[in-house]
Amino acid sequence: MSFESYLQAATAEGPNRTLPGVVVVAANKSGITYKHASGTQSLDPNSPLVNKPFAADTALWIASCTKLLTAISILQCVEKGLLDLDADLCDVLPEFKTLKILTGFEGETPVYKKLERKITLRALLSHSSGFGYAGFDPKLEKEVLLRGGKVEMTGDLMEHISLPLLYEPCTSWSYGVGIDWAGLALERVTKQPLSAYMDANIINPLGMTRTSFRLLSRQDILAARSDMSMRLPDGSLTPSPTRFFPDDSKDDYGGAGLFSCAEDYIKVLIDLLQDDSKLLSGASKEELFKQQLSAESKTALNFLLYGDYEENKNGEIGAKFLGGLPAGTDVGYSIGGLLVEAANGAGPNRRSKGALSWSGLPNLHWMIDREKGVALFYASQLIPPGDLKTSEAFATFEEAIYQGKL
């Protein structure tokens, strides 16, 4: 079966449907080499989008795909001398002066200990700073709820990121709000919102016409936006009762706040394939693709993905982050995303050693393989994250590209 037939069958209306609307784009240094969309923009029979085809210009909440653009923005500020990857951030983010490490609870009372090490941008961007997400970590969730906070993203950035640490920086790995803090550091030193900085330094220079943090001020994006779908525990698909992220966010979340489309996002990936990037100097680009974790943090990351523990007994945790990478693939983490460390890459007809990738909560995935000159983007609007059918589809897409079938 061809990839297009596979995707068509997966998104076809009816009881055997396994995926909502999907768009995939592949590119090399010269530009887009392949794009294909399948399915519709809504599963809700009462929605005007139920018969509207999913497309490469369909507007999407790209969630954590935002992180790559924030990392690029930080590296630009390092080039300008405004930020330092290895400096103590307490001067820029004085909130860090009072940070503590959550060690557990005595009954319903959180127990903290003093932070001994400095927090740097390098640690924030590589998720080794000690920050987590309250929505991913039960200990943090309990701490937030005990003080009357909210776990979900409400549009108030400080409410979302004001968390204790889980460990000393660079001694473990946890997915978390570090890149939101990094975006806030950029706002402090540039004296402008992250959205304004990104518009001037990434979005406009690359001609990204359907990308913004400020959804309600962009009626063109709002009008082109897909509905969100949800997979139920029995595997079936249904319209989602939530969009997960507020339309009217008052703050710019550097870790999750962008709305974009496949045709726009691939422009960032194409630029990073270039020898002469519009966005980053050669040295900064090398930094973006370099493994950044300490031995302790890298061990923790690989255990989280592949370890034998209760929450991951069927690979559920790994699926959230791997995007169809074969289980057991040796990985590290860079300033920009997950990095394949295995000498043979991800195996036959897959990405090379040094390939960089990450994902977005509603089951989006991107990948850059500089060795092979390949960039891939897969997008849908499906929750919850880490969907196994999505991982299978992205892996099938990747294999078809590397086999030269597309």
Automatic annotation (TrEMBL):
The keyword Disulfide bond does not apply. GO terms for molecular function: hydrolase activity. Residues 17-386 form the Beta-lactamase-related domain. Signal peptide: none annotated. Transmembrane segments: none annotated. It holds the Pfam family Beta-lactamase. Gene3D superfamilies: DD-peptidase/beta-lactamase superfamily. Keywords: Hydrolase. Belongs to the class-A beta-lactamase family. This is Beta-lactamase family protein. It comes from Paracoccidioides lutzii (strain ATCC MYA-826 / Pb01) (Paracoccidioides brasiliensis).
